[in-house]
Write a structure and sequence with these properties.
Elements: E1 8-11, E2 16-19, E3 47-53, E4 56-57, E5 69-72, E6 78-82, E7 87-94, E8 100-108, H1 118-126, E9 130-134, E10 137-141, E11 147-153
Parallel strand pairs: 2-8
Antiparallel strand pairs: 1-2, 3-4, 3-5, 3-11, 5-6, 6-7, 7-8, 9-10, 10-11
Length: about 160
């Protein structure tokens, strides 16, 4: 009988919980049918594809694989997506003056051939302080005013 080992590592600096257990699709987060991108995209209920990380362009995580992506649900204040190797989910808090903070991000811990940006991407989410939304582009900023990640609205 194969022993099932479940382990976790708390990354205190990033506030991430990693587990070897398979994680379901990000919390069953669903995109409403009427949330298609338009000239002015909403922050929530819109899928956002990562295009830049720490002012460095990024391509697809894996050739022919899903894009590194995030989705913020308006009603539940949950966030979920794909980090390049693993699905993730957690909660977010949006302030009245452009603040945006992510909490309790949980990712599955799967071995992947290549996902060098996943840890940096999840760390960027965990350190997000505020956001700018301009048309179909979303930028997350750190407390020091440096851009952490940039996204484009998924079609």
């Amino acid at each position: 009988m194969a022993a099932r080992v479940v382990f976790g590592v708390m990354l205190a600096s990033a506030g991430l919980w990693l587990s070897s257990e398979a994680w379901p699709e990000p919390g069953g987060l669903t995109l409403p049918a009427d949330a298609a991108p338009s000239g002015t995209c909403p922050l929530t209920d819109q899928r956002w594809n990562l295009v830049e990380l720490a002012e460095r362009p990024v391509g697809p995580a894996v050739a022919a694989g899903p894009p590194v992506q995030v989705l913020l649900e308006a009603d539940s204040e949950r966030v979920g997506g794909f980090g390049g190797c693993n699905p993730f989910e957690g909660r977010y808090e949006r302030g009245t003056h452009g603040e945006l903070h992510f909490h309790g991000l949980v990712v599955s811990l799967m071995v992947c051939a290549s996902s060098p940006d996943e840890e940096a991407f999840l760390r960027a989410l965990a350190h997000s302080d505020r956001f700018d939304l301009e048309g179909g582009r979303l930028t997350l900023w750190g407390a020091d005013g440096a851009p952490l990640a940039r996204f484009v609205a998924a079609e």
